[in-house]
Amino acid sequence: MIRFDEYCRRREAAAAAADLPGYRTIFSHVVDGLTPIANRWSRRLFDGPFYRTAAPPSPELPMANLVFVQSREGNTVADDPSTLGGGETDKHVIYEGLSRVDVDGVLAGAVTAREPELVFSIWHPELVALRRECGRTRHPAQIIITRAGRLPFDDGLMFTTPELRVIVVCSSEATARIARTVGRKPWIEVIDAGEPVSLATAMKTLRRRGIESISCIGGRETATALLREGLVSDLYLTTSAVSAGEPNTPFYKGPPLSLTKVVEKAGQQREAGVRFEHFLVGNPKFQAPNPNSQ
What we know:
It is a single chain. The protein is built from eight helices and twelve strands. The protein has a domain at 2-129 and 212-285: Dihydrofolate Reductase, subunit A (3-Layer(aba) Sandwich), CATH 3.40.430.10. It is 27% helix and 23% strand. It is globular, with a radius of gyration of 18 Å. The protein starts with a helix and ends in a 13-residue tail after the last strand.
């Protein structure tokens, strides 16, 4: 498909041309039960291996991570996410890179997925090669959570590209209507997640359909629901040094989370002040210092 091929070439060229200052490790307490992901290129820029939890919280569930960028005040909503100040290293090495190199699918909410020219994938050639080394397909499955099904099925790039596997998770009320809409697009699957949508039901169904690992990228309502239901094992959080975003828009709203810090990295050069943190979420078997004590 010409449109998709051109899109991939643009994204790959932009990633390859990006000037990436990289990170410096300032805290590390790696524990058993984590899988390292790295090649020589990523080790240099990330200052060591990137880690993910090796096993999901339950055999019925996929292993899931959650990836977010926030301003220094903790805001996560912006018309242009790049204004949140995460930087090029976060974008190309973490967000569109290591967090989804070794997963079957990328999950996002409907608002995030409504942009017409959008595919959730890996773009830097070094990380494309690493994904292949992990035995993965070139592009992860595109998993979209929607209640009402208002998505650009007719002209959205991910919904009109047969080379992609697309899974739409929706409410019972919307299931039949969406199935009719995408009936002639066999690369799009529809999952009935109940009324109202239950993310636990959705995750269990995804696991039965062969999705064993997922990178979740929001929006924040989806993130809050995933965290409240105990469906996330790893939280990858980048905090910028700038004031930006809509006020009072944290990635999570709810009871305090049980978080265990694994690593913390500091941005360098023009990205000085950026902080990347990897937390394990709510798993008591991992014994590492509480991030609040650091």
